[in-house]
Amino acid sequence: MTETTAPGAVSFCLRLLRRQLTLAIRRPVAVGNPLLFFAMVVALFPLGIGPAPETLAGFAPGILWIVALLSNLLSADGIFRSDFDDGSLEQLLLAPQPLYLSVLAYVAAHWLVTGVLLALVSPLFAAMLDLPVVAWPSLAAGLFLGSGVMSLVGGIGAALTVGLRRGGMLISLLILPFYMPVLIFGTATVQAALDGAPVQPFLALLGSMLCLSIALAPLAISAGLRISVDA
């Protein structure tokens, strides 16, 4: 008989990432909800503040980043929910592979199907708010980095509340304050592009926050999952 050996840590995490992406593709509603929410809110803002292009362009950086933040909150609760419900999450905690890398795969899948998609389509929504074209690359780059931070921080809240039936409101209260630096520097990136100032310092800050989150957030997520599953 041939002995079966457990896959290596990297191989296991890549398989886990592929699994999560496949499940997301099979549930298009889960992928489309954040984009639909983003589009609906952006379309409603001109009705509330007026259709004047100058007014919309002035508020556009803050509007786009706030809606991106809320879209991330909308989907963060589901990062581990389905696997917790079917028992897969408990098996993941017992696996020999490092939990740090495993939860990083979960968060990476969430970031790819939410944050990266929002960053790619953000120029379309920017055009809806009459944001000048010169600020579109900064908006997309900022969302690309900032959404990664929000997914990692959102993963902490999702891990702590995964055992609760209605953890959506609680997760918002837990992680919303930690989203504020991302919101501030993300908006400042777009505003700097509009003012003709260098955007690299703000993107560097967002990149530093992403690196710090990658280093620390999976540790907190792992601890939160163990608490939630053992509770």
From TrEMBL:
Main location: membrane
GO molecular function, one term: heme transmembrane transporter activity
InterPro entries: Cyt_c_biogenesis_CcmB, Cyt_c_CcmB_bac
Location(s) in or outside the cell: Cell inner membrane
GO biological process: cytochrome c biosynthetic process; cytochrome complex assembly
Topology in membrane: Multi-pass membrane protein
A GO cellular component annotation in the UniProt record: plasma membrane
Transmembrane domains' residue ranges: 28-49, 55-74, 99-127, 139-162, 169-190, 202-225
Highest taxon above the source species: Bacteria
Keywords recorded for this protein, A-Z: Cell inner membrane, Cell membrane, Cytochrome c-type biogenesis, Membrane, Transmembrane, Transmembrane helix, Transport
Function: Required for the export of heme to the periplasm for the biogenesis of c-type cytochromes.
Membership in a protein family: Belongs to the CcmB/CycW/HelB family.
Name used for this protein in its record: Heme exporter protein B
Organism listed in the record: Chromatocurvus halotolerans
Lineage: Bacteria, Pseudomonadati, Pseudomonadota, Gammaproteobacteria, Cellvibrionales
